[in-house]
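Researcher: Re-running this chain for the archive, since the previous output was lost when a drive failed. Same request as before.
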Amino acid sequence: MIHASTIFLISVPVALHRILLYQYQSYYLFHYMYDLIAHFYLNFTFKMPSKYTYISIYNQLLVYLKYNSKDIFS
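Model: Regenerated structure tokens:
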């Protein structure tokens, strides 16, 4: 059963992301951070994270930095 707080925690960042998407050109960092927060939230609340969770997050970070470093450092 999905609790109302879970829906709230997921829907609010999505709404913020939609607003930022239309206001700013470089929204990739916010989008990535939301993915990361949602990933941690879901893993820590519904089950204990395995080592593969950390490997997955690390790989996502590497891929993000590889393709979007110009947005962060420019």
